[in-house]
Design a protein that fits this description.
heterodimer, A: alpha+beta, outer membrane lipoprotein receptor (LolB), chain A, 13-stranded mixed β-sheet, two-stranded antiparallel ribbon, 15 strands, 21% helix, B: mainly alpha, Butyryl-CoA Dehydrogenase, subunit A, domain 3
Chain lengths: 297, 186
């Protein structure tokens, strides 16, 4: 135990803290537990195995772009700059630094080229087989300790594909073939992490950075809309900032510099958390699933 | 805790054995919740939620891979973090914690110390709160905390050091703010 720990232990010992349980609550809860048990089905002798999951792929390119937004679905009344609430990129950068986890929902149509950066071709064929694009997708991700990229991550598509990854392993469950692909290492991640620093760097890296203001007609919330272009990647982006929280709430990415046509990523909901529970990143293996250890990556 | 293994096996099909397990661990789970949440009523509510979740998920508990007590702490940690996730709830808890301290029949110095600590701990990230509480209030070893949080002892060691450094900073900040308020009141 180091000096810091000894000092804190001494500090804690010096505090009088009434933490004695109330026997009445204990007895009441015992009755509730017995009632709950009576409703439970008979316990299984063989519990389902739970695996820590993932998929690793630079699907991340998804998320790299992961800070952009959209308007098509949004009823927006645009405001003159003079009547709009003040917003500075530093406000959002500071707000982002308070959160270590994020949930993102939207529609994605990743290009084959993007997938090929992370996966073996044979696996890509298995994953894309009969899968319609674009596809609705959800991400849950927790920043790594250094907040440079995601640590634990989970991805689910609307047709049942599930992927999870941590620093050591990546798992992908493909429902059509009831197969789980396992690979050593992390092959799905959001990199860089959606930190304040990332947003500031995005502004430096991109061109034509423009901000307009509007009000969501449905909720009355004041919004800022960022548009920018990354010519070196042939990407363009649209990011929506909620001016009440200063956080990004939507984004879109196009694989062209004109924001033309259907975006490759149209992420319509972004929610930030301080933490996500660890079990969010666990995968329950469906009964009878085939497990294939494969070198995709 | 040595008999948990046998009791867990029996509890899978015997409610009486499950109740025994519950009685054995209720106090520890409640204490953990009250140390994390700093408020008795809320801690009781979360403790209830924890044990009801244990009933619901007991079939998925793998006795060969972890201790039942550590599994309980893991569920309690998730329940507490979920509760704290809403900033509004955290603010309410802070307010109640301060009121509780003011109402306690203890010396001014102790009450002040407790208020400082509660405020500083609640301002930490939930993961750091968990580590601090398990280490210093529940006296768990680093290896046990690592099992609860599904991490390695090395990672927990470095996170504990970071948590203490942040706590030290928060304590200093909170103490400074309080002394400024006192000066202004005078």
């Amino acid at each position: 135990m180091n000096n810091d720990q000894r000092q804190f232990e001494k500090f804690v010992r010096g505090i009088k803290f009434d933490d004695s349980p109330d026997p009445k609550h204990r007895d009441r809860l015992e009755q509730e537990i017995l009632a709950a048990m009576a409703k439970q089905p008979r316990q299984r002798q063989q519990p389902l195995e739970t695996w820590r999951i993932i998929m690793k792929s630079r699907i991340t390119k998804f998320a790299t772009a992961a800070v952009i937004v959209l308007m098509a679905v949004l009823g927006v009344t645009f405001l003159e700059r003079s009547t709009a609430p003040a917003w500075a990129i530093e406000d959002t950068a500071e707000a982002l630094d308070h959160f270590n986890a994020v949930y993102i929902y939207g529609v994605a149509a990743p290009s084959l080229e993007a997938l090929e950066q992370g996966f073996d071709k044979e696996i890509i064929r298995a994953l894309l087989n009969d899968r319609e694009m674009p596809i609705a997708v959800e991400f849950w991700a927790q920043a790594n300790e250094e907040r440079t990229r995601s640590g634990n991550i989970r991805i689910e598509t609307s047709d049942g594909l599930v992927g999870t990854a941590d620093d050591t392993k990546t798992y992908i469950y493909e429902p059509n073939s009831n197969t789980i692909y396992v690979q050593q290492g992390c092959h799905i991640m959001i990199e860089p992490w959606l930190s304040g620093d990332f947003l500031l760097k995005l502004k430096e890296f991109t061109e034509d950075w423009q901000v307009t203001y509007g009000k969501d007609s449905a909720t009355g919330k004041d919004l800022a809309f960022i548009t920018c272009t990354a010519p070196s990647l042939s990407h363009s982006m649209w990011i929506v900032i909620d001016l009440e929280t200063d956080l990004p709430v939507r984004y879109k990415i196009w694989h062209n510099t004109k924001r033309k046509g259907r975006p490759a990523y149209d992420m319509q909901r972004i929610i930030f958390f301080e933490e996500l529970p660890d079990d969010r990143f666990q995968l329950q293996i469906p009964e009878g699933a085939k497990v294939v250890e494969y070198g995709f990556g | 805790m040595d008999n948990d293994g046998q009791l867990v096996a029996e509890a899978r099909n015997d409610p009486a054995a499950f109740v025994q397990l519950y009685r054995r661990h209720y106090d520890a789970v409640f204490r953990y919740c009250v140390h994390r949440l700093c408020e008795r009523q809320t801690a009781e509510d979360v403790t209830s939620a924890v044990f009801l979740r244990v009933v619901e998920n007991f079939s998925s508990f793998r006795a060969g891979e972890q201790q039942f007590r550590n599994w309980l702490y893991k569920i309690a940690t998730n329940a507490v973090n979920n509760h704290l996730r809403q900033a509004a709830r955290r603010n309410v808890l802070l307010k109640r914690a301060c009121e509780q301290v003011n109402n306690q029949d203890s010396t001014d110095a102790l009450a002040e110390k407790l208020a400082l600590m509660k405020e500083a701990v609640l301002a930490l990230r939930p993961r750091y709160q968990t580590i601090i509480t398990l280490r210093f209030f529940e006296n768990l070893k680093l290896t046990e905390i690592a099992e609860v949080l599904g991490s390695s002892p090395g990672t927990i060691r470095s996170q504990l050091a970071r948590a203490l450094a942040k706590l030290r900073k928060k304590l200093a900040t909170v103490a400074t703010e309080k002394s400024k308020v006192t000066e202004n009141e005078q």
